[in-house]
Amino acid sequence: MNASSGSTVTSDPATATYLLSAFAIGDWGTTTYKGSCCSRSDSYSNYDIVAEDVVASLMNTEAGNAAVKSKVIIGHGDNFYWTGINSLEGRDSRFTTTFEDKFDGANIKTIPWVNVMGNHDYGGASYVCSSGDGNAKCESTDALIQGLERKFEWQSGYTSPNDNRWKLEGHFYVHRIEDPTTGVSIDIFNVDTNDADTHGAMQICCQCYGYSNGDSAKCDSVGRGHKYCAGGDTAMYDACFNKFAEWGADSRTQLKAKVAESTATWKIVNSHYGPYDHYAEAGMKSGLTF
């Protein structure tokens, strides 16, 4: 988070009176059942099983107690485990079950929720395409690309019954919050980073959990050309990977332009993957250099 080049920040953060506040949450979208996609090495408690309910309750309590009420909830992606929204017909029911009915406390129910897509929103590592409300093998490269685009559209096109709080306006977009009395403002730059070198496009495009019939142990060393990576279809894999590269490059191009134009007091970049942990050096520098 950085101050605008046109602003002078003179207050001490340790003693300052805050004018704006926000919640931030990531990897938060629970499944509709109690379980995991993957082999498990450790046991888990009842709190883990109902983690989203616990977090939602804590957020509502903190929002009620806060001296400065949150103007936004910043969502870092992975909004719907394990494979995102699988159909337009099933979308509203899924939103109701794992979003609206979970984060329904009186203190948070109408706060704008500003989102980006995570890898699991695009399919995770399962089949990207759908049959009904389930995952299905993509029969062609065009079907795979259409599947990715629909995964995005089914979330971005949703209208929340609670003050239209769900926001996902594009692969890149800017959302501003502002204190009307003082004019102090924050611009939130939302970026699609699923072209990340680690744990991003490669796993989504390989779809190994689908091709290996859900055997996650077979996916540890799978890559382009492997029979469990897009069924060995390198053209399909490359087209998928290039689509994420296109979205990522466009997001970063717009980010640099919009940051330069921004008059906000503070600036936040919201993404699913950070440049340090998930990008090789070239991608890391691209994400940090303005």
UniProtKB/TrEMBL annotation:
InterPro entries: Metallo-depent_PP-like, Metallophosphoesterase_PAP
GO molecular function, one term: hydrolase activity
Keywords assigned: Hydrolase, Signal
Keyword Hydrolase: yes
Keyword NAD: no
Entry protein name: Calcineurin-like phosphoesterase domain-containing protein
Gene3D superfamilies attached to this UniProt entry: 3.60.21.10
